[in-house]
Amino acid sequence: MRVVLLGPPGSGKGTHGKRLAASLGVPLIATGDILREAIAEGTRLGQAAQEDVKAGRLVADATVLGIIETRLAQKDAANGFVLDGFPRTTAQADGLAALLGNQRVDRVVNLVVPAETVVRRLNDRWLCPGCGAIYNTATLPPKAEGVCDVCGSRLVQRADDRPETVRARLEVYERETAPLVVYYERLGALRNVDASGSPDQVYEGVQRALGKVAA
Ligand code: AMP
């Protein structure tokens, strides 16, 4: 199954994408994670993307399409994938369609959540740099404060989750990415899911959107 998760920053794409990919037995491909890794490693890609990611701007379509082309060519993506944070522009969606050829995106799950909820969630979001687990101090806290339940690493906050950068990211989302809702609606692939509830409630909605029994 080939799934795209759509929705503003903080709508839960990473949290639900991880769970969904594991349940479907396909890889989760998150362009933001790939870019952050490249930045941390100081690769050429990382150096090129650094300024844009820091400011909450989109990285160039050609760069991101290159990342996706390489990643989708790997064996584990042959039977499907969950995409988180890609596509983010109609040019990227066209590029994805071209890469897939006669295959298609089966479902686009649009996580719908009000802007004020997103700002609060991003402020409360903590990540594990060791294993990528995502926490929320209000709704999904780690068992021990500041420490990952899974691997014991110290949790960190994302630099671009600061309120001023969050505002820029939300503007970019409205301008560049929200048009994809209509794009995928026209293709009959879109399902809207109310993403304002608890993680378990939202995940149930995601499962329903995919026509699967909640796991
Ligand atoms: P995310 O983790 O999805 O919120 O992405 C973090 C940042 O990485 C974004 O604010 C962009 O700067 C960059 N980024 C991630 N995915 C894309 C994409 N598909 N197109 C352009 N920039 C991206």
Question: What is the helix content?
Answer: 40-55%
Work out the helix count: 9
> How much is the radius of gyration in Å?
16 Å
List the ligand species. adenosine monophosphate
Number of domains: 1
Low-confidence spans? none
CATH-assigned fold name: Rossmann fold
List keywords for this structure.
Rossmann fold; five-stranded parallel beta sheet; alpha/beta; single chain; 215 residues; two-stranded antiparallel ribbon
Please explain how this structure is put together.
- The protein has 215 residues and is of the alpha/beta class.
- The protein has a single domain, classed as 3-Layer(aba) Sandwich (Rossmann fold).
- The protein is built from nine helices and seven strands.
- The strands form two sheets. The protein has a five-stranded parallel beta sheet with strand order 2-3-1-4-7, with helices on both faces. A two-stranded antiparallel sheet has the order 5-6.
- α4 runs parallel beside α5 and α6 packs across α7.
- The mean pLDDT is 93.
- The site of adenosine monophosphate has 17 residues, from α2 and α3.
